[in-house]
Amino acid sequence: MEASLDYHFGTQLQTHIKTPTSLKIAIIGFDNFGQFLAKTFVSQGHTVLAHSRSDYSDTAAKLGVSFFSDPHDLCDEHPEVVMLCTLIISTKSVLKSIPFHRLRRRTLFVDVLSVKEFPRSLFLEILPEEFDILCTHPMFGPESGKNGWVGLTFMCDKVRIGNDDPRISRCGRLLDVFAREGCKMVEMSCVFNQPL
């Protein structure tokens, strides 16, 4: 384990313990739902980065999240996971605006729109082939999940996950965030919208 000390809010000292299961997760679209997910990611020891068109830097700082107003700067941090928390109508333009060349090959892209054909097709169309794709649909949000996620359904489809151990492990570690919170985990195909 590697321990790092970070100063937050001037004089307050926080200790973050990095474990082999920790991920560096970038959230693009940091409104209510992105902030809602970030709280849990941070509480489980993950490093969280965020980007949004609006300035959420103060909110991010209070949550222990690093906010980037420029997506190039966010991508320069080389997150292992990039999670899109955008409105469905803006997903295509947001996805096309990401500077993929600044990310490491094999980055895992995750959407939280729904386990449907549209996000799957969009990700397959726009993302470079070397990036992994996980489509998800948390069947809860800031209101229904405010008292915890126990028993709430989390659906997912591993659309394109590389077959080497580090990529499989990274996907598993991300899904474990939701499982550890007590979610009912359901794998479902985007294409047929049926359980796998």
From TrEMBL:
GO molecular function, one term: arogenate dehydrogenase (NADP+) activity
Keywords: Oxidoreductase
Domain Prephenate/arogenate dehydrogenase: 23-196
Signal peptide annotation: none
Keyword Oxidoreductase: yes
Gene Ontology BP, a term: tyrosine biosynthetic process
Name of this chain's protein: Prephenate/arogenate dehydrogenase domain-containing protein
Taxonomic placement: Eukaryota, Viridiplantae, Streptophyta, Embryophyta, Tracheophyta
